[in-house]
């Protein structure tokens, strides 16, 4: 259950800490009893020049960011997801929780307006996937890998060119979309709808053309997404998976064995693409670059999805699918190293297969001695 709060910066004691996130180009604010607030900057947590937070002080700071409904949920369950919009500073996605009996909170900075795919530097295949008339596209990766930003850019691409109804179901709403060519309705769990199941069942009566499901969390969510995609809607969603093969396996594993064959066939028919993301520190120290594995559902990939005996070949299909816009993480990391965006050492830390990545670098003409020099502690 989530809810949103919009408030003036001057009314919140947390405001200076949130401002520090923005000023320092950070991504997250961490609040914990016994230590100073910390801001995640380029992947690392950096303490602010502030006094350590006491239990009573932090309890008051966090609870004043909540609506009455969120506060009631937090008191009942010791955790809550919600959105916080602070005038003059920005919008944040918050998660409050208790740790060893004391309150803690992490707030992530999210954009008020979506950034276009062009501004994000996304390859053309991402825009092509966003403008599919029907089917399912998944954006995956760990928490903090930029999935929300990519999905917001994809929704914006549709909003700019297609006169359709876009319906989003989010937990909570992060990026605000305003009508352009499309009509956009955004629904938030806890504020606009009771739960995912209710919202997804109601969605079919709201005449959507495009449906964004904030996250595929269980078999019911996946089943509803596949059903919508199979009946002519275009569906986008996320999963916390690391690559295309794991994404397929995770979806299948949501279901009991006697349903898995049918799910495989449905996924093979409706899937349009999988975009997997990881963030890597930039070589110049200015933020992080996104490394992407992109799988497009060609006939060969669809066969690998449908046949459990062939699912292990998905990585090879992606590696050989450059003509269709596909690429593996390691292939993209080599490109990022060659153009100077990221260092070899940082790229190796997030590579899928360190040995294969090193071999690809050597084939690309990178001196093996340089690889060893950068990756030696």
UniProtKB/TrEMBL annotation:
Domain Bacterial type II secretion system protein E: 204-218
SMART domains (alphabetical): AAA
Database matches in Gene3D superfamilies: 3.30.450.90, P-loop containing nucleotide triphosphate hydrolases (3.40.50.300)
Transmembrane intervals: none
UniProt superkingdom: Bacteria
Entry-linked NCBIfam families: pilT_fam
Family that this chain belongs to: Belongs to the GSP E family.
Protein name: Type IV pilus twitching motility protein PilT
Source organism of the structure: Nocardioides caricicola
């Amino acid at each position: 259950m989530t809810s949103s709060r919009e408030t003036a910066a001057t009314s919140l004691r947390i405001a200076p800490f949130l401002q520090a996130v923005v000023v320092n180009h950070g991504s997250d604010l961490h609040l914990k009893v016994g230590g100073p607030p910390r801001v995640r900057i380029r992947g690392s947590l950096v303490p602010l020049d502030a006094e350590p937070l006491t239990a009573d002080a932090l309890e008051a700071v966090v609870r004043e960011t909540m609506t009455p409904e969120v506060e009631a949920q937090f008191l009942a369950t010791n955790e809550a997801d919600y959105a916080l919009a602070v005038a003059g500073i920005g919008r944040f996605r918050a998660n409050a929780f208790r740790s060893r009996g004391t309150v803690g909170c992490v707030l992530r900075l999210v954009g008020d307006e979506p950034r276009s795919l062009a501004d994000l530097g996304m390859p053309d295949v991402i825009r092509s996937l966003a403008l599919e008339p029907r089917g399912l596209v998944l954006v995956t990766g760990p928490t903090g890998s930029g999935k929300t930003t990519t999905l917001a850019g994809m929704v914006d691409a549709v909003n700019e060119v297609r006169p359709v109804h876009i319906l989003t179901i989010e937990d909570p709403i992060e990026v605000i979309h305003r009508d352009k060519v499309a009509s956009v309705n955004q629904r938030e769990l806890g504020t606009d709808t009771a739960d995912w199941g209710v919202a997804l069942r109601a969605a079919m009566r709201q005449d959507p053309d495009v449906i964004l499901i904030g996250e595929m969390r269980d078999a019911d969510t996946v089943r509803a997404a596949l059903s919508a995609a199979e009946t002519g809607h275009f569906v986008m969603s996320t999963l916390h998976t690391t690559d295309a093969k794991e994404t397929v396996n995770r979806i299948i594993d949501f279901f009991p064995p006697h349903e898995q064959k049918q799910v495989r066939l449905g996924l093979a028919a409706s899937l349009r693409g999988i975009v997997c993301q990881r963030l890597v520190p930039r070589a110049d120290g200015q933020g992080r670059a996104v490394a992407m594995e992109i799988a497009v559902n060609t006939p060969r990939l669809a066969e690998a999805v449908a046949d459990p005996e062939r699912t292990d070949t998905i990585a090879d299909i992606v590696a050989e699918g450059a003509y269709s816009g596909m690429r593996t993480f390691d292939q993209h990391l080599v490109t990022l190293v060659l153009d100077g965006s990221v260092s070899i050492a940082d790229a190796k830390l997030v590579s899928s297969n360190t040995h294969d990545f090193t071999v690809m670098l050597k084939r690309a003409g990178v001196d093996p001695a340089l690889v060893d020099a950068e990756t030696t502690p």
